[in-house]
Amino acid sequence: MNAKHFLLVSLPTQSHINPSLQLAKILTDHGAQVSLATTTSALRRLNNNTLPTIDGLFYTTFFDDEQISNESKDVKTNVVADAFSALKRLGPQKLSKLLQNLSENGSPVSFIVYSLLLPWVAEVAREMHIPSAFLFIQSAISFAIIHRFFNSYDGLHANNDNFGHDVSIKLPKLPLFTAHDIPSFLLPDNEYHSFMVPIYREHIQTLEKDPNSCVLVNTFDALEKDVMYSIPGIKFFPVGPLFSSSIFNKNELNIDKSFGGNMARCSTDNYLNWLDSKQDRSVIYVSFGSIIVLKESQKEEILQALRESKRPFLWVIRDIKDEEREKYCISEEIGLIVPWCSQVEVLSHRATGCFVSHCGWNSTLESIASGVPVVGCPTFSEQNTNVKMIEELFGNGISVNKNEEGVFVKQEIKKCLNIVMGSEEKGNVIKENAMKLKSLAVEAAEEGGSSHKNLLSFFKM
Fold first, then answer.
1. Whole-number Å distance between alpha carbons of 150 and 74
2. Helix, strand, or coil here: 375?
3. 72 exposed, middle or buried (CB, 10 Å; 0-12, 13-18, 19+)?
4. Which residues belong to the active site?
5. CB 54 within 8 A of CB 36
6. How far apart are CA 459 and CA 461, in angstroms?
7. What is the pTM of this model?
8. 242-292 pLDDT tens trace
9. CA dihedral of residues 308, 311, 317, 320 (deg, nearest 10)
10. Which pairing describes strands 57-63 and 33-39: parallel, antiparallel, or unpaired?
11. What's the burial of 130, exposed, middle or buried (CB within 10 Å: 0-12/13-18/19+)?
């Protein structure tokens, strides 16, 4: 183990960087050397917000996305599609050069772990005779849906995209997943469909080419074991939950404040002291992740629902300006609006009673490990899949219905808040399920638990 040098390759987004960082920390804790490679822009933003440092962990870049952005800034194009096109076209050569440089400097890479949307990394690894693993940062159920679509032996759409809104997926021991429940980019009318589908298809095909295909999944056995181990030909290692405070002791989540990556502007608001002043399980926490930008009309619906709930709330609105705070006219007795917070610290705080969330997988796992019920407001990608799991499989939350315009309206949000924060039977069952899931997450992550054992098995590869 001491001789191993892992290269972790991640896209430059918070939801990809965070689990990669946490895996890096775990690997170094077991004596490995780890180099975390991301793009130039991501590394700069991490550096600007105090990059976490530990022995054995190094940072590097595999792609200069700032140069690509500058070259195309005057051209009207699909920015996201162009970025992925540039990555696929230029990334392999640049990654090969990085691997060569590391080897020439006396630190050859012995294992590559690549994150979501980077299937070409596995091809580079194979060409250079380096074993690799795919770090899947979404749920095992999301992986199973993707695999059901694109695997070569019975995939529904292994070689074509001719499917519509009548598509459905049936997985072992799970309810039917309709078009509403599957990752949105799989649907033909989704704006990201044309370039995302080929990437996910390539992920599956790349794994099929490898006789020793290996997938690390940010989940744990007790949560999704049935679906994960029903997929043939792939060796799965459920190693979750992976996030910035994955230190568990005696059935409690202890925050590791010394480690964690933040690509956003840090808040100067004293939100933890504000939480300290509130009663147990009384605060509504609201956050829609690091990518989603809410429309003003949606913000207004949320604000009115929070006000009328007559419960204290902590709401994260990225890059909020002072004039916006003034417009909302929020006093700290009613609620607190901040541009950023340490989400796991907030979720694990005794005062937090529920989580109004977009239900990205990182947020879903963080709510599970903290025992906090969820009020789900999914927007895109696999968030609808996660909400279905939360409501129908895990039972630790409830989904807010949208209106015909796709807006989560005040009445629906308030109704769900009253259920989850109230004392009626349905809300109590949700709260009980949330605490049961927390115990299972803690058990999986602690020494001797399923995720701990799976990591040890991965180290031996």
1. 36
2. strand
3. middle
4. 16
5. no
6. 6
7. 0.93
8. 975 444 555 565 656 555 566 555 555 689 999 999 999 999 999 998 888
9. 80
10. parallel
11. middle
